[in-house]
Amino acid sequence: MSELKTKAEKLDASDELAAKRGEFVLDDVVYLDGNSLGALPVAVPGRVEDVVRRQWGELRIRSWTEGGWWTAPERIGDRIAPLVGAAAGQIVVGDSTSVNVFKALVGAVRLARLGDAARDEIVVDATTFPTDGYIAGSAARMTGCTLRPVPPSEVPDALGDRTAAVLLNHVDYRTGRLHDLPSLTAAVHAAGAVVVWDLCHSAGALPVGLDEHGVDLAVGCTYKYLNGGPGSPAFLYVRADLQDRFDSPLPGWNSHVEPFGMRAEYEPAAGAVRGRVGTPDILSMLALEAALEVWDGVTVEAVRAKSLALTDFFLECVEEYVPEGRVACVTPRAHGERGSQIALRCPDAGDVMERLIERGVVGDFRRPDVLRFGFTPLYVGFADVERAARVLAEVLA
User: Fold this and answer.
1) Which terminus of the chain is more solvent-facing, meaning fewer CB atoms within 10 Å of its CB: N or C?
2) How far apart are CA 144 and CA 28, in angstroms?
């Protein structure tokens, strides 16, 4: 047995999160694509069956009250809140990430203009996931703003008295680089602007500290590190002291102060509820609620510690097994700059990933030349990491 295999066994034996692996539906595949779609928690199928057969099938319309359907968006939001460092009453679950980015960004511009109506610029992360950029462009057109794409490291110097809102990614989806949320938030606030953070690649993977760092608005998906299932609803965070001024560009009957009053005039509800729009997707919503039970007894700090240990060990195994010069790591080595994934540049990355998947190691490929491996600490072990690096070396040999 190699030294790295032995080391993996020792690390797995001392892993305080090892038992959590049994709460997921897994097989002998090394699954390193949880940063795209998390594995299925074992509690979900039974819960979904109950929602379909009993709540929908038997209780029917009564489930909006008796089954707690109507309050699910806020209830599940409060379940997510501690995972991103937020107090209760600030997160609502529903709609897609894209829709929530739109709500948050337009709402941010409107908030900024309450203090200075002349603010007419939206700054967006130039390296962002394409959809965020598309939505930022649409939000700029809708609000009469100029859109300014800027790399996150250059954002502080790009801010000024024209800046209304800034949309940033906490973790870069390609490279896994972790951006400095506290300092960037402070810089945006110093400029008198409003910040929106996209937490898709950090929620459930590392501490975020929304309340601690005074973040204004944030959005995130739930199907990656939160394991909510394909297309599971996203979430929207609105800081408590901004809620009474948050003006959503998508006012719907679900966010009305009197939703069943059917009044012609719109009056928003108080609190996080005003982030709702229409009827929530109950089947996906309650599947997510069941999936979040895997977090019982788990702290985000413990997840982060294991995440860093997993990614450190993966890099160690890659350096030991993979021929020199065959891949190059584009994820920062410094812990403070790393999310929960490792991205390796490889000229024939698309073909390499196909061959890895054929051999039971599932990551993903990002054009033009990036192999991306996501590490979900709740179910990925150190033996998985060693095997992944070893198979990668064999494929590249």
Assistant:
1) N
2) 53
